[in-house]
Amino acid sequence: MKHKTIFLFYILLILTCYPLLFSGFVHHDTMYAAIRLWTESSYLDWLHSVSQIQGRFYMYIQGLLYTLPYLSKSFYYYKVITIGSFCCSVIFFCYLVRTLTSSTAFASMSLLCLLISFQITTNHSPLSGYNFFHLGIIIEMLSFLFFHNYLIHRKLSYLILSTFMFTVAMFIHETMILYISILFLIACNHFLYHKKPLQYSNYLKVISPFVLVIIVYTIAYFIYMYFYPPGYPGCQMDYTTWSLAKYLKSVYQYTISSFPAYLFFDDKYAELFHYYSNNAYGHEQSLWSIIVSMKVEWIIRASIAGYLAYYILSKECQIKDNRKFFLLGIASLLLIFIPNSLICVSNVYQNYAFQNERISTHMTYFSTFGVAIFFATIAYFGLNLLEKNKTTVLKSLWISFISLIMAFFSLCTDYSNSYVAHSQSLLRGKWSSLNLFYQTPLFNTIPENSLIYAPSLWHTTFSVYFRQVNFSGSHHALEQVNKIIPNYWEKYTYAMTGKRFQITNDINRIINHPPETPLYYLTYMQEDKDTKQYIVFGELSTYDDSLGRFFTNDMTICSYAKNKRFNINFSTRNSISNVRYDEKNVLSINDNHVNLIIDKNDRQHPMITARFQAKDIDMDSVLVSYYVNRQNYYDTLKYLPVFTVNSIIEAEKCYVSDANFVVGSSAISGASIESGEIAFVINVQEFGKYKVGMKIRFKTPLCYFRRFHMRVDERSYEWTFDPQFNQWDWIETNFSLCLPPGNHMFIFRQEGCCSEEADFGVDQLKVFRVKESSNKPLNDYTSTEWWKNKVTILNTNEKAPDGSQNAARLLFEKGTPHPSEIFRLYCRNISPGDQVNTSIWIWTLNKNVMIRLYLARHGDTPYEESHVDLSLNEKPQQFFVSHTFLQKHTCLRLHLHSVSQEPFEIFVFNPELSIRKKNQ
């Protein structure tokens, strides 16, 4: 190749690596290995235990190779190892293809196809983790090269080195044993095209050392597995549920995802791309989405890919024989399907693919090398046919077509890689912020063995894996690590600082802490789509168990963002007279709410700190906003005001129409704001049920009704109302909200009617507590529509058999195969370990009625229940059912279940429920 072409390939390689430059830990395995290596002296003992748990004897070698990127804690070292090993595998691939095919043009085309095919996924991938697999690829390719050199030069040392490299590769992953098929193809290629080929028997002798190694390896593998049965599901096989159809589907799924542009057109990734899309209309599976999201580096990379494809295909290629194309086609298909053919034997990988929970695996990356040879073979085979037919025009069209395809594939992979890599780079922010926080003078003043309550460090923000529970079926990496290393953040802090602290997300450790232990509270926050992030830290002065609130007299906010100017908003328990800021400035405050803009033009320190000292600062009320570009905007709107639940926010003539600002302060008097949403942050002090009301009027003509949309945190609600024409009108939501203590975001939007502008004013907003009894009459729940067709509740004024006037009669007309709710209790803060006890009177006038009574959670939390089987007669009986819940819930229900196909009726009376807290 000419120097110009080589230079362009290097540029293409750099642009391919560019999205990988900023990501850190993206898999729980990488986090797990790093923290083990940095904090434990018994790393080899851990490898021994992992090998036994997985039933894989080669884990001793793989585990050592796994640690290479983490021998240093430097991020730059990590990137040099991970990206450097990737680049080496790409270069070795090009050299191997050129050596085996004796064609520089074909090797160049294969390299081009490889570089435009690499796709960063949210699943396990050597591109973002598992970097030791690059070394496995390199070692396997070295084995192929030494084997080829042995056939050419007949030196025994080459065969020994090839066998040794092949053996080492098998100790990286068991799938490597299947690559012996490539050795057969190399031998076949030598037999067909070398001037002095060997006899058949000699080729078998040459292959025999590899076969012997595989036999010994396989025997050792199963013997080890016999003594140490694998507990890892990826090494298990359930013959009762295994099926050939699932196997073929999983192999196909994990293989097809290695083809370029697959992620761009995959529906599973559509939500991810839509969320991060720069396009105002979100992600669409069309060229338009790429065009409107285009970046300069995408255009450069696609242009280089198209140019190189045209240039390479225009040059002479040494491959002319159809037999060689046939061998290349076979080799490419083997390289495509071999990687996933062994792991898919496991039921767990079959289920991932069959249930569409995971579309690729760590072995999918290996298939990419086969895809590159496959596309290069197609390109040159088509070109060879056209050259033989001497159709110059069609040849030019074919070359142009392939060039455009290469450019299109480059754009599609750049599109998907950009968004996935961006989501993964955001994850690094948590570790980067903590590393900077550990370097602050504030952290150096914290006594060792202090107890730091930091639940936000375990929050899934958009995950290590980037919201993997949605995009791969896997759990969040921190959740996975926390199961194995519950004190992960303690170990990480010790690894980075050499100091030991107790860092926890268990509130019980705060409640039951030893009196002599200093208590601190840490909150980490990051914007979903941006690198803006901050840490709130302070020593706890008070924890109010009834409110679930944390208070401090000394709080520090550490901001890590490009914006050095930001708004800080927080509240105190009671009204205060002043607040000390950075120990020098005293702010006069006559309220319990502080709102301040901080502007520290400090370019030398990436993390900006602001210290506040006041009596009983509510640490959960802290909000930091970086949207303070104009002082007059802040003075007018006071971005995101925080209100307590019983307050009324008054604003005179606040008209809004079509943008996205925030309204809600009395300082807005007379303002006219272009907005389509009204947003508030409401501070709820107690766990309970709440309703929302507001006084509004419309600037535009009204239709007969209005539909309002409200989003509270992540939940959406809609309701309709019929206001007076252009008059102030008080409206209330027709549903109750169950809210725990803390800040909650309320966003209101009016859905247009008759296509008119959504232009309305807000005069008052009120969030008020709904009082309810724990023992409501049963008939209050008859409005539940989803079970009315199965059970009919009949009110009766007649005296019930037990003398009660308030009993309800439940008529089971068709029998009830599905649960039928008879009692529901909202807004109860059920914590793990709490015991719920219920009782209810039930009787019947029918004979021999058997029914089952359930106590269960209601809602979208993990299902839990206890039940009792009842035998009913005409004598009223009080039945009891209790359950100790293992999960956190906010809503409970009592329901009945019957499998009887005969109609019957029962009477129920006085359902009662009580909650016994774990610490009572």
The tally of strands reads 30
Q: Estimate percent helicity.
A: 25-40%
Specify the number of helices. Answer: 24
> What structural class is derived from the secondary structure elements?
alpha+beta
Sheet bearing the most strands, described? 10 strands, mixed
Global geometry: globular
Mean pLDDT: 78
Low-confidence stretches: 461-476, 630-676, 753-758, 773-800
CA(first)-CA(last) distance: 79 Å
Classify the beta-strand content into a percent band. Answer: 15-25%
The radius of gyration is 34 Å
Question: How would you characterize this protein structure?
Answer:
The protein is α+β, with helices and mostly antiparallel strands and 920 residues long. 38% of the residues lie in helices and 23% in strands. β3 and β4 (533-544) form a beta hairpin.
Annotate the secondary structure layout.
Elements: H1 3-17, H2 28-39, H3 43-54, H4 59-66, H5 75-101, H6 104-115, H7 132-153, H8 156-170, H9 180-193, H10 200-227, H11 244-256, H12 270-276, H13 287-292, H14 296-314, H15 322-341, H16 347-354, H17 364-388, H18 392-438, H19 441-444, E1 451-453, H20 468-471, H21 477-484, H22 488-497, E2 502-504, H23 507-511, E3 519-526, E4 533-544, E5 549-560, E6 565-572, E7 578-581, E8 585-588, E9 593-599, E10 607-625, H24 631-637, E11 642-644, E12 648-650, E13 655-656, E14 678-684, E15 688-698, E16 706-712, E17 715-721, E18 729-732, E19 737-739, E20 742-751, E21 760-769, E22 791-794, E23 808-812, E24 820-825, E25 835-844, E26 849-857, E27 865-872, E28 877-884, E29 892-897, E30 904-916
Parallel strand pairs: 1-2, 1-3, 11-14
Antiparallel strand pairs: 3-4, 4-5, 5-10, 6-9, 6-10, 7-8, 7-10, 12-21, 13-21, 14-20, 15-18, 15-19, 15-21, 16-17, 16-20, 22-23, 23-30, 24-29, 25-28, 25-30, 26-27, 26-29
Helix pairs in contact: 1-14, 2-21, 3-4, 5-6, 5-7, 6-14, 6-17, 7-8, 7-9, 8-10, 9-10, 9-15, 11-15, 11-16, 14-18, 15-17, 17-18
